[in-house]
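Objective 1.3, modelling of assemblies. Example input:
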Amino acid sequence: MIKFDHASKRFPPGMDALVDVSFAVATGELVIIGGHSGAGKSTLLKLIAAIERPTGGAVLVNGQNIGSLKRSAVPYLRRNIGLVFQDQKLLFDRNAFDNVMLPLTISGFPSQEAKRRVQAALDKVGLLERQRAMPIMLSGGEQQRLAIARAVVSRPSLLLADEPTAHLDAETAADVARIFLEFHAVGVTTLIATYDNSLFPNARQLTLDHGRLR
Amino acid sequence: MSTWLAQHGAAFRAALRRLAASPVNTLLSLLAIGIALALPAGGQMLVANVLQLARDSAPTPQISLFLDLDASKADGQSLLNRLDNHSGIKTFKFIPREDTLARMKSREGFADVIEALPKNPFPDTIIALPANDRPEAMEKLAAEFRKWPKVAQVQLDSDWARRLAALIKIGRLTVALLALLLGIGLIAITFNTIRLQVTTRRAEIELSRLLGATNAFIRRPFHYFGILLGLLGGMVAWLAVAAATWWLREPVAELASLYNIDLILQPLALPDSALLLAAAAGLGWLGASLSLRQHLAGEGNKGTD
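Predicted structure (tokens):
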């Protein structure tokens, strides 16, 4: 499903974020990307979602080469990827329901079906009762679960999460990790960048060290 | 198709919500656009009214040929024959000098003066109605008639028509100039409003791109926003002109009646109103497009190139 072939990413002033990274992820796998802060975990996920493009080597996602992907094809690639951002990127001008609705609006989903899906996604992360709440009213853990609901509402085949348990207390972090494991259990290919690999003891582990795979 | 419609419907509703979300800003923008457009629209209303007045009250333009005082009846007859065969003349009328004398004598105050004259001072006169009453055509006919024998003087009474035509031309040019300037103003207003919208919605725009939104999806609500802003501003302008028409109607009719003119101000005609609204919506869209090109390009494509 995902293949990195000697992929590198160098940012303009000459800073190497990723150097000669090669690995493959099969459909349905759960992979934890570990490593110190600044090791390149976020950059690796961004390459998969075509938020950044590789400056060397190749990154293939679902057989599509990210390096040569046409700009107009990028939106359609992303619609098949669920993204959980480090900073969550919730919209604070609308309630939980509308936050989760956004990906379906973007892909032009019929509204009746979309409504059911949003509620299913909120139910899955345990936020159905809070669907009318504004994000500012939600606790840190609830906000994180809301971000996950938004990532999975369009039922992507690939789920990418960047430090989803950072800033959460141990109990809430375990709760969030359990949600990811549930999605993985139903066949979603899942990549999670985290420094805390104890939450996913049975997952395959990739470790980055200054942009290189160890 | 239904997805396409649904997306446009959603974008339209989003634009409406954004207009409603900041009512004070929206109201100020609409007033600015409305007042800007009311000037050329009001000018057009006045020009159209003057034009209508000119059409209604204009006497049929005619050419007067004054014959030499020594012209005989036979000379007059030969001129009449020539006019009869002239394709540029619709009808004509011969007024003998004796008739003119009698008519002038009957006028109060003139009788004594005319009695004192040794002989009839009035020439035979032919009044001709041209087939084509455009000022230039009449001028040409007059020039031709001046060369005919026994014709002492040719007088056009199209002077007033030419003055009016020149005035209306200036009026129209002024309206066009105002429309051009204030149209640019409207573009500037929408440009700036959309710029503010893009700035306040930057987070939503960036997130939408990350979630797989196309450029068209992101721009659509802003386009509708611009169109709605223009259209509603155009309606404000229309209402302002309608109110001004209604308000001015009585005083203008009163003034006109002092000059024995019937003038009842008419509001903007249907085609003019349609043009006003269409132009306003179009300019709103244009302002939005220019603004999006400026403010969504570059930064907005981060991650897509």
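The CA atoms of residues 20 and 146 of chain A lie 35 Å apart.
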